[in-house]
Fold these 2 entries.
Entry 1:
Amino acid sequence: MTDPLLSLVSVGLLSIFCQFLAYKIRLPAILPLLITGIIVGPVFGMLDADALFGDLLFPIVSLSVAIILFEGSLTLKFSDIAGHGNMVRNLCSIGVLVTWVVAAVAAHYSLALSWQLSALFGALVTVTGPTVIVPMIRTVRPKTNIANILRWEGIVIDPIGALLAVLVYEYIVASQDTALLHTLIAFGKTVGIGTVLGVGSGYLLGLALRKKLIPHYLQNTAVLTLILGVFAISNHVAHESGLLAVTITGMVLANMKDVDVEDILEFKETLSVLLISGLFIILASRLNLNSVFDVGAGVMIVLAAIMFIARPLSVLASSIGTGLNWRELALISWIAPRGIVAAAVSALFSLKLEQIGYEGAGAVVPIVFIVIIATVVIQSLSAKYVAQFLGVRSPPPNGFLIFGGSKFSRLLASELVQHDIPVCIADTNWDAVKASRMMEIPSYFGNPISDHAARTLDMGTFGTVLVMSPYKQLNPMIAYHFEYTVGKDRVWGLTNNEQTARPSHQVGTQYAKTLTLFDEGVTYGYLASAVSHGAKVKTTGLSDEFTFEDYVKTYKDRAIPLIALDNNNRTHAFLNGRELSPKSGWKVIGLVIPDSEAV
């Protein structure tokens, strides 16, 4: 494409298409993004990133990686590491070192890379990342403890692995000078300036946010601008210390008391998705297929060393004292696809090393991309069967994610908890969430379709989503999102009785099909009124002597069946228009209205 405007728009359209495709097929987005970049770049020559951006390519990649690393470091809370056990902490420390050493040694002897470039390659492939781990966990459905370990490893290891790569790169650049003392001074200056500026800017920015010195509507824009300023100033003072500075800034902000970074994090996540999508197509389009083929068969040895030596050794070394059995460790060892940070940082450092004329620097990117594609493809396609073979795959999800924390929702959730049914109430209203937590009901404060929810909610345990909130504008969005996440037949909402109202109040046909929860006429207002008049959520056991027909006759119009539990404790929601006939031995959870009350 010769028209720059058309090229830029095409990159944006292709990136959105790739994200949507990954969402539909439930694979990490990095895979279609990389393949698309290769197709439009070296295969058909439709996109020439160097001609399109010219001298701006390097600054654009640098700033994009800085934002991605800052966003990743904002999730690095030390309390989260401790809260998920020694295994996560060990994987992100001991495990990183083991992977680094094994990958570096394999690259040096199998691909004849210098020790410096081998060390850089080893640091780059230590990271996994939530963007590749989370879709895989949803498909594999490992046991909860395994899912938590893998999810939090992906979150925590991104900035740590990137930080290690930054330090290795700084050492390589500093060692260009033959004087050892000068090398150590330059390296120390880079690390020192990056650390001091990172800690200082993070603390000052945290104070500004805590004291609300920045208006709320300017917070996201101000933080983004200031972070880019820290990156540029740090690089100006000490060569290439900016990535270290922004990573530490994010870590400081994430761990400061009384500093709310959720809004900033959500904004940065949205921006990161945009940057990552476009960046990957652009970077992949710069790949030289000849250089990929020139890598040789040695890359297969490196790949095998990473997958079958480095990962199992790092998991084994990290598992000491954790109490995990060999089956759980085996699955953790198998699931470690490399992600977006590895590709972005490798491309950035390769560009920088090529600019200073470092010999062999161009070989790093194709090797990293081969590792990324191979691990994503192999592990995405096989992990489900490996988990099933090892016997560590969770059964089909049986729990409920309830959107809407009304009193009725809390009563229903509390009853489900009594029967050991996984449940979580999500609401954007703090009072509703606080009331749920006071009843010891698992809850999520915020929008359940946000990126933050995707990282923290364990959707592997929730097979059904019940939309029972009064938020008419948000309810359809929740329903549409989870129809693709858990399935169309697993998302149900309360009717709003507006399909027969005037046309301006009617909802979409597809969304209307989900509004069949419980029974005809059971709206949010009806349930709220019933509960306010003393209605209770009650469980009734069925038997040969007391059948479901007897249940209906006994309560007549005073009971609304809600959920049925079969003999295996599997859940079945009552839906308007769908017949459900509970059998002997089943339990029926219903809303029972007192005799003397009328709603």
Entry 2:
Amino acid sequence: MSSSRKVQKIIDQRCWSSRCRIIVCCLIAFTVISSSNVHADRWKSGAGSSGESYGSGTLLLGDETGGYHRALHLGSKLDVSVNGVIARVTFRQSFRNVSDEWLEGRYVFPLMSKSAVDRLVIEIGERRMEGDIKPRKEAEKSYRTARASGQRAALLSAHRDNLFSTKIANIGPGATITVEISWLQPVDIDNSIYRLRLPLTLTPRYVPGVSIGRHVEDPLSVHNMSATTQVDDAAQVTPPQTYRSRGGELADVAELNIALNAGVELAEIASRYHDLEVSSSGHRYQVVLEDGSVAMDRDVVLEWRPAESAVATAALFEETIGDEHFGLLVMMPPSIQGAIPRSTRELILVIDTSGSMAGESIRQAQSALMNAVDRLTQDDRFNIIEFNSRTRSMFAEAVPANHKNLNIARRFIRQIVAGGGTEIAPALALALGNPGSGNSVDNTNAGSNRLRQVVFITDGAVANEEALLGRIHRTLGAQRLFTVGIGSSPNSYFMRKAARFGRGSFIQIGDTSEVSESMGKLFEKLEHPALTSIDINWPDDAEVYPQITSDLYRGEPVISLARYRSNVSTFEVSGRAGKVSFTTRPAISGVVEQSGVATLWARQKIESLLDSLRAGADIESVRPMVTEVALQHRIATRFTSFVAIDKTPARPENLPMSSRHVANRMPAGSIMGASQAIALPVTANGHYISIVIALLLLLASMLMYVRRPS
């Protein structure tokens, strides 16, 4: 063989070897990309095997491929009765099993964090079952036994203060089921505005931590979500969530009927997000939806304001049970803050840019940030922290609020986009610092009187609330933490609790049109000293909750609940505003008899007992105390559940039963789920890394081809 032919053969062999390497790398890259996409798609919510999606409140019938098919949703209705400052809410949902199988369904539903769920009723055909309150493990055992024996049964459990679930077993083919849940909740008051908020759906919660490969023993474990190192009950708090049904029609709507007994003449009554029809008779108002029903994709918010002549300084609502009195004191503190000069401060603005904020929420958050920056003065210092799967700070440390730095901040805000996970812990660590460090005290410069305030702007869509609240409790120091709830249905439990532990205040923004007004009110609170060291002289025999009244900011009332045997007619309230002390004796024009005060007192006591766990209390000592109060007052908690059982077996022993889910509607304005995964644990974020690796392999292949011998 000639030398030229030998050289050509070597070149051909090298070319073939190069081509083989390119083909192998391409195959590997294609496999990695495909598997990562399959992995990501597995977590998308609401998509059936045919690609259609369904509305919230739809009974979804799962199959072995992971797809869903729709059962018939017959309707939802909210009946609300408001008396004074307490609302009784009854929520009814009806479904028909249109399959030919016996079914078990599960529905996760949101409430306000201060709600006390005290009633469960299940109707199947003509059968009506009233729930009994039991210790949680006992209730779950009763339900499992009834489920296995073919009896109709229902179980209501609390997973968070604002997140509950209901299971219903042995729904026969063609049967219609109605689930009725009832609860009490207090009305919010701020700047003499009374506000009732009714969540109808929830924002998907991000599940941080590494999967530990253990599934909760629950036949209705949503998406087969496994527990993680940070969230042990991930399967319980991540229900499927959907957009509109195919064709754009709304299958997830609810009727609303509110009977409002304000007790005084009202100057205004309105809803922020829905058109209402209001009729009145004296001080009683009837409120219904103008269109008859509302999409279950955002909170319903009703606000009313008493006429100026009817605004009371203080009111005492009381319920008597036996020889015990339960009192609810609502009092506006004296207006002494105006005479106190504005404090210079160091303001740390923290913004959530995770995937759940995509759409309307991120626009609201950007507008809120711009509003905050515009309120800064030349005496202030500030910084901005952005977080999603990663955390980054605009400046290395807080800087003066001069013209140059403010312009940098505005450019920073405009380029923000939403994507990734909701890793709040690193952002909290950066914003609050560590106890004893320069980041966790009132000032960053020795001798400064600068007050350090942290404003956290987020939808709070996380499943590890307890760990985050514990971090705030440990690292707050002398700082103040304020939270801004963003979106049409944020996690208000976490936001409120974080603000309370942070000795700050909480506001909620549900629409971009509210940003200027809401941020203005927040900054009025930030710019004036809080009322601290508040003491209320209840009778000596009173058991009072909360035991320590939180710091209060401009426009916020004193609210205190107590159980006592003595008669109460007058109060003395004392406290401090900055360095100024005050004592006031509010005029109370009689005691108002009010049903539900005892239940709200018990709910507040339970909350105080559970809060003690974050301060180091032993759960085995707290559990029996919570259980005792909850059983006595019939309240669902993490240690107590409602169970309802029909004694007559309905499902024949030889027929199996399948488990099904009820989906929640995605919040209005959210685009999460259209192109992003929902309820992703950290381990699922690896599909992004996989794509990067695949692209690098393709690039390596191209370089190998370009550099082949000529």
